[in-house]
Structure formats: structure tokens, C-alpha cells
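Contributing: when you submit paired examples, paste them exactly as shown. First protein:
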Amino acid sequence: MPTQDKLEPALIRIGIVVVLGTIMSILDTTIVAVALHTLSHDFNVDLSTIQWVTTGYLLALAIVIPVSGWAVHRLGAKPVYITSLALFVVGSTLCGFAWSASSLILFRVIQGLGGGMIMPVGQAIMARAAGPQRMGRVMGIIGVPQLLGPILGPVIGGIIVSNTTWRLIFFVNVPIGILAIFLAQTFLPASTKDNDHRFDLTGFLLLSPGLALIVYGLSEVGTTGSFSGSTVWGTLIGGLVLCALFVLRSLRAPEPLIDMRLFKDRTFSMAAIGIFLVGATLYGTMFLLPFYYQLVRGDSAWQAGLLMAPQGIGAALIMRYAGNRSDRLGPRHVAPYGVLLLALGTLAYTQVGASTNEWWLAAALFVRGVGLGFCMMPIFAASYRNLTHKDVPKATSATNIIRQVGGSLGVAVFAVVLQTQFTAQLGDRAVALQNGQLVPTTNDLERMANAFAHSFWWSFGTCLIAVIPALLLPNTGVSSPAVAPTTPASTPVPATD
């Protein structure tokens, strides 16, 4: 219907508020990456310590995301969203004033506790406001920061570090956050509360530390370069056991923190697998790329970030079209082609050398971006297709945890592969060359490029695996008569994301 083809001004204003908050949260997952060397020098600590500036933030995101579903039910989406924005702004301000590595890590955790709830709560607000027939188009709007954040983060961070001070990386969030709080208070609709819902404390005490231990264990693997050691195995096994206990309890609990019964729906399950795999190849590859450009090509931080921009451009150009096409034809007619394009763009990087043509690499990244735009939003939208209105907050929480965990696993696994290849290619010189303590020879650069090429094969393989769940998504559009809702507006209808 014509009214479904056009987004009304009120919905657009809500989308702007959500985008402002979301882009801050996502940018901070990557914007610090290019500044880690500067931070290590300024605070006089090694890289294994300064890595916690990033890892602490990711752990905080993983811990707090499960709370978002309950918080939206019990407290209302609007106050929870505003509180999350305020906590993020406070954390950003404290990070900018950090006086040591330990204080910065602590303040990054505070920042992550706010940032972790911004995106899932914002998506729940948009899902409830838009309804199922328009979620593909709406995700084309609020999905921009989700895809551009990992791309623009290194660019913005590199420019700031190269021209000013690393503290501005955090201070830049403050005016944006204050504006987002004001707009949220002004434009977000009043929230309904449901005091009948209880907080699943037992589930939280199982899932949050379980996820934290898994991410910590994998970060330690990335630091040591192997799975050996009692710390790695102890944390990984402990985390997996806690998560397994959470799953068993969730299947029986009347109000679990994350309703694992959602996965009984095949569409939600296939979409969740797709979200996990796409998140792994997106964040994992974005971890590899700046290191390749800086270590092998000798580019500066801002140049490395700029060289990753074609992926964001490709995603931005196609995302809205992909959302509309998915709404009309069904995600199965869109998402698999996107994943294949993602794999094709990654394939070029499996052949990189020390002097591979940069225009060729930029073209390959553009193809990756087009693939991301074609697959990510339709997959997210499909995850909501068969859900009722009341299930939206819990489903949003689940999909965001899956994306975050997928990204963390991707980074950790690709880091292990890269470190192993560096050791195999360079032997005892590997660490010294990575830290800039030795000047690499031409042969060293070629060996380092070979290590990156091998690592990119893992990203390519992840893309190919993601084709399978994409092919099992629905093949009909949400606006077709077969799936169009026939219930009154007051009755819960399937919601998409």
C-alpha cells in the first residue's frame, strides 16, 4: 500500500535518534584500534596490556547486552535508551581524562556498559515503531552505522591520532551524546512498562560471566598466539560450561534472560547463524586489514584507515536497495548473493603480496562492501519475521549478542592464525618485526604478506559457510498476500528487524 512505501516524519525522527546513539557505540569498537601503539608509548606499557583498552570495551558490551530485553519490558524503552546514552557519555569523558593504562581500561568498561545497550534498545524501539512491512527499509537507515562504523572507525581514529591527541577520540563522543540525549527526550514516544516481568538473575549470573570468560580466553589466545596454557583452556572451558548451563536453564525457565525457545523457529535460527558468521568475517577482516597496510605496506594510521573506506562506500550505496528488495521478494532472493559477493571480495586478499596494486585491493573491498549491504540487513530482518510484538526486545538482545560474540570470535581466531603464520614465516624475528624493533627486509615483507594471505583464507571460508543459512531463509516478501497480517493493529503481529 502507498502508506507502507513512505516513512512518516515521526518514524524518521526516531531513526535519527537511534542512528546517533548507535554510531557512537559501534565506532568505539574500532576507532581505538589505530591508536593502540600511541597509547602503549604514552603509558609505557606493552601491547598485551594496552589491548585491554579494546577487549575491556568488548567484554562490557557482551555482559550488558543480555539485560536489554528485560530492561525494555520492566523500565520502558525510552528511559533505558536515555540512561544508556548518559552512561556512555560519562564513560567517554572519563576515558578522555585517563592518567594511566589501568584507569583507561576501567573507564572503557564503564563506556561499554552504556554502549552495549544503546544498539539493541534502539533497534527494539525502531522495530516496534515501524512494524513488519517496513522493517527492511528501516534497517536500511539504522543499519548504516552498523556497517560503516567498523570502516569509519579506523579512518577517524587515524586522522585524530595523526593530527591531534588520542584523548579527542573519546571527547568527540560527548557533544554527539548530549545531542542524542536531548533528541531522545524530545522525539522518542512514551514507553510502556510491564511490571509483571522479573529479572532473570540466575540466567544473568550464568550467561554474562560465561560470555566474558570466552571472550577473555580468546583474547589471551590472540596475545600468546596459541591455545596452550592453563589460563586459556581454563577460561574457555569455564565459559562454555556456564553458557551450556544457561541454555539448559533457559529452555525450562518461565522468563529466561534470553529465550532460547526462539531458536525453535527455523527462520530465526538460520538468521542467527548468518548474523554470527557475517559478524565474524566483518570484524575479523577489519582486524587484519589495518595491520596489513601498516606492517607490510608501511602506511600511516590515517592512510590505513582511508584505504578501508571503499568497503563502507559499497555498503552505503546498496543497503537501502537491498532492504527494499528483501521486503518485496524475500531474503532468500537477496542474502545469498550478498554473501557470495562478500566471499569474492575477500578472495582477492588471499593473494596479497608486499606490493599488490592498491587500486585492485580497493576494488576488492568495494565488492565486499556491496556484499555486506546485500546480506546483513536482509538477514537481520529475517530474524524477526515470525516473532510476536512482545518477543521483539528479547530477539533484539539475542541477535546483538550473537553478532558481538561472532565478531569477538572472528577477531580472536584470525589473530591466532596470523600470529601462528608470523612465527612460521619469520621465526624468532616475528615479535620484533611486529613491534617495529627491527627494520624489515624485502624478504621479511614478502613473508609477512604470505602470513596475511593465509589468514584471509579463513575469512573467505567463513563467507562460504554463511551461504548455507542464507539459502534457508524465507523466499517470500513480507508484503505479499501470503504473509500479510490480517489482524487488527492492536493485535501483536510478526515483527521484523
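Second protein:
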Amino acid sequence: MRPTVRFLSNQLLEDIVGEARSLLEKLGIEIHNPGILDMLGDHGAKIDRDKKRAFPGGEIIDKALEAAPSGFRLYDVEGGETHDLSGHNVHFTPGSAAINVLDYETGGSRRPTTEDYVRYVKVVSRLPHLSSQSTALVPADVHQNISDSYRLFLSLMYCSKPVVTGAFTIDAFNIMKDLQIAVRGSEEALKAKPLTVFSCCPTAPLKWSDVTSQNVVDCAKYSIPVEYISMPLSGFVAPITLVGSLVQHTAETLSGIVISQLTNPGTPVLYGGSPAPFDVRYETTPMGAVETMMIDCAYNEIGKHLGLPTQAYIALSDAKLLDAQAGVESSMGATLAALAGINNVSGPGMLDFESCLSIEKLVLDNEICGMVLRMIEGIEPREDFPAQPRFEELLADHHLLISKHTRRYLRDEHYIPGPVVDRANHSRWLEEGGRTLGERAHAEVERLLGEHEPTALPGDVRKDLTERMSVEARRHGMTSLPHENL
């Protein structure tokens, strides 16, 4: 039996969805993109052009939900399937777009470079419990106008796993789309085997900017999967109550589904988000707060009720260092996410309100992910009945260390972590150096970097990707790309 967790009764869930639909029909959604307003109007939505608001009614929402697929699959650079984003399948990916990296040598955070990004990607490629990579760091050594496409470029060059990414400009989307087509070979091949998921974020409350709404449309045109990242902040730009924040989250996410499905029915989507309570003491948005985790799990229930696969920014921490707080918040989030059946869990590796990535934390979080993935497999009999033969063997030999039954099921039944997690007794721990968690994690990072192998990306594709990226860099005054010097 698979263990689960729920936060909403059936009636409360229905009430939240009903209120969200009513908000869209009566208050509408603000959209700063004339073309999308025209499209919604063509499909029967009431439009107030002076206020840039659309009012999608129930029929339009129902049409969009009916068109949206109940799941989809992701594929790696070589075309191998990595994800089945449907049902209660759970996959983990690092968090996204940190502007700082935690420097192991100094213990402080700093702006990341291309070298940091490449180290991160190489490590991710070796972590078995992270099904995908993300554009997790923003390198500060390239022009800001190419930072989105450059991160995707580096990810495709150094790691085979699919990428959770996003574009902050319309121009960035175009080159990022072209990079994916270069890997797959054609638009049709990319549609058949999606390589990325793009994060698209409405603005609280009830608003889409020109760029983000256009990203939704552009992704839909090429059947590139989208995860909607609604970010209600409870008590600031959303109601203080969790229910009120869920109503807002539902309305904003439904509006995104309408835009994508009216553009191209059947576009793969993830019902996602990054909500948080607003901590008035510090004016912060704690991603490690229990209320954040509760809202995440609850809107996951709403997404599944609507027949959609889900995503959440969870399993991360607001701590500034790899410390006890980082472990508590990340492990609690990962556990709840897995029990809730969130399909794509974004967060491992992240600190400081998702503004800082720690590669050492990433390898620790990989172990946390391994533990919770084992947990949701549940408890099932493995040749345990009848029990008498096993206990006869135990009474005769006084142990079952080398029993056939033990050897057959040891690795299936027990999750055995790597060296980051210390399970030695105290004397052996001292004999092996008495290393701290941070020291063990850093040693594991160095080991994984030493074991990195180039991807199977063909040489002509690598050349094509590099040429495309170099052209884009020259458009913004850069004569070379930093990765060429690594």
C-alpha cells in the first residue's frame, strides 16, 4: 500500500475551485498582451481593453481543462524516457534560478560563474534520485540578455537529463527553442519527445505580464511543456488564510491553462506553483515554512482533482548554510511532497529563499530524495508468508546475514545511502577522519566531478549548439563564451 497524505476534504476542494472559477468570470484576469486578449475574445471571453482584463467564463475553462492532458513524458538528450508525469509518480529536480552559490571554501555566498554552473551540472548528472536538471544558477560572467539561453546551452552540453528552465524575455525563448530543436533534429521530434519544462509565472494578484503570457503561448505553439508558477504570498498579495491563498492560486493557474489550451489544445502542462506566507517580522517569503508545504500539497490535490499532473517548489530551505535547519526543512518538504504525490518536485540544493544553491546540499538532498522514494514504495510482503521457514532458519543459524532471502531482498527492501549520510559507530567515525556533514558532502562532490563522463551528444550537434550560442553572445557584445576556457 502506498502511503499518502491529504489536506483538503472533498467539499473544501470543490468550494475552492468554485470560488476560483467565479473570480475569473466576475473579476477577471489582467493580461498585458493585446494578442492574447484578442485570442480570448475570439473564444467568447468578455474583454475590457481599457483595463486589460479578460473574463473567461465556465465554458471556456471547461474547454481548456478538457483539452489539457492528464500527464506526459519527458526524455533525455539521447531520447531516452526519464519521466512519467502522471498519477502519483514522483520525480525530483533541483530548484531554479539562484543568483548566488554557497562557496565551500569561504563558507559564504557569492555570485556564480560559468565554472560553478558546469560543476553543478556535472554533479547533477551523477545523482540517481534527481530525474532532471534545472537551470539552477544564473552565471554572472555573461551578458544578462543571454543568461537564460546560456544556462540551457550549458545544461545540454554537459548533462543528458531533461531540463526545467524558463525565459525572462521573448527573445530568449526563441534561441532556447532553437537549441532544443537542434538536439532533437526537428520540431516534430521535439514535440514527440519533450526535452524541457518551461516555468511560466503569473503575477499576484490575478495578472499576466506581456512576456510571461507570451512565453505560455510560444511554448504551446511548439508543444513544449509548461509549469504554471503562481506565487500568492499569504497576508501580502494574497489573503492571509491558506484557503484564500488557494482560491487565488487556483484562479491564476486556471487562467494559464486557458491561455495554453486555447493556443494549442493538448499542450502538456504541470499544475504548479511557488506560494508562501509573508513573514511580516522580516519581510521574507519562507519557502521552508510549514504553511508553504501545506499549500503546496493542497493545490496538488486540486490539480489532480482537475485531472492534471502537478509541480511544486518544495524540499528546499531558507537556511543560509548547510546546517540543521537546512536538513529539517528540506527533508520535511520532500517527505510531504512524496506522500502527496506531487509529480515534479523542484527544490533540492536550494537555500536562502531559493536565491542560493549549494552543490554540497544538493548531494545531501539526493539522499533525502532516495529515502522518501523508498518510503512511498510502502510495505509489501516479499516471500514472507508463510513465516515459519524463515524463523526456522533463524533459530538454527542464529542470524540471517547470509540467508538467500536476505541476499535476494537486501537492496530492494532497505535504502542504503551513500557516504554523505553517516551510519558508522563513533569509534569507526573517528578512525575514518571524524568528518562533518559538510566535509563528507564536499568529498562526494569532488568524487562525482572526477567520475563525470561526457554526454553522448553527437559532435555535429555540439558544434551546432555552440555556433548558435556564439551568435547570440555576439549579438550582445561578447566575443567568446566563458565555458570555452574551462
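If you have annotations for the second protein, write them as plain sentences, like these:
Residues 242-263 form the longest helix (22 residues).
DSSP finds 17 helices and 20 strands in the chain.
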